[in-house]
Amino acid sequence: MSIEVKGLTHIYSEGLPHESIALADVSFKAEDGQLVGIIGHTGSGKSTLVQHLNGLLKPKSGQIIVSGTDITADGVVMRDIRRKIGLVFQYPEYQLFEETVAKDVAFGPANLGLSEEEIDVRVQEAIELVGLDYHAVKNISPFDLSGGQKRRVAIAGVIAMKPEVLILDEPTAGLNPKAHADILQMVQAIHDREGNIVFLVSHNMNDIARMSDQVLVMDHGKVALNGTPAEVFSQEGKLKAMGLALPDSMEIVSQLSAAGLPIEGSCLTLDEAADEIAKAMGK
């Protein structure tokens, strides 16, 4: 599985007085097994971009090629594409509606025309993969769960479809620190087990630096930077000019380096920064 985006352009309200270009000639490629972080200020085009990746939005121009199939071409059956590409919106718990957790998670697989036996297997696997006890929650209302648990159930509903690509748009938005950490640990566990492509949209630079294999920086509808976390977050001047911060570890290292402490390495995490600071201080 791979996804290649070529020259993607999207215009909202085209031809009207409030016309706006949301995406402008966006191009990049994601390979099988990668976790791709997408960052950018509000309005930079992040959410518009990911809604194109499973066909929810159609571009003005450009191509999205999923494993050799151009999903922007005429005649493509989008149902088949959406079986492969799962999208989890911000606050997905607002889309829960069934009377029990198991029924809610089963909704997607049931629409694939699977047997009852296969649906049951998928539901149990998905609930357990998002870190919930299947037997404890399967028969209770999702509305009786905590906020973090509701979000896990909503994500389980997408996981149960067994997507080859999983897109998560701000999956930790509005959660407390513990739930935030738990959701990201769950995302990493899903990625490790399934080996799928994951797109993670986030405003949290620490999470993106720690988890991503590739980072896309969106700015005014364009890909401003694209590379490994070390490559992208080394561009401090460019990032700050776009109103973006460095990960905490790199901000600390940057300030210490400016004060004269010779620190080497990318220091994408606080543990890495602590090790490099200790080396620089001769300890």
**Low-confidence parts, pLDDT < 50 over ≥5 residues?**
none
- CATH topology title of the domain at 31-55 and 74-229: Rossmann fold
Please bin the fraction of helical residues: 40-55%
Task: Report how far apart the termini are.
Answer: 46 Å
CATH C-level of the domain at 31-55 and 74-229: Alpha Beta
- How would you describe the shape? globular
What can be said about the biggest beta sheet? 6 strands, mixed
Q: What is the strand tally?
A: 10
What is the CATH superfamily classification of the domain at 31-55 and 74-229? Answer: P-loop containing nucleotide triphosphate hydrolases
What is the count of helical runs?
Answer: 12
- Name the assembly state: single chain
Mean pLDDT: 92
Structural class: alpha/beta
User: What order do the SSEs take from the amino end to the carboxyl end, as H and E?
Assistant: EEEHEEHEHHHHEHEHEEHHHH
Q: Nearest-angstrom radius of gyration?
A: 20 Å
What would CATH call the architecture of the domain at 31-55 and 74-229? 3-Layer(aba) Sandwich
What percent strand?
A: 15-25%
Strand arrangement, largest sheet? 6-7-8-3-9-10
Which terms summarize this structure?
283 residues, 4-stranded antiparallel sheet, alpha/beta, 6-stranded mixed sheet, 12 helices, Rossmann fold
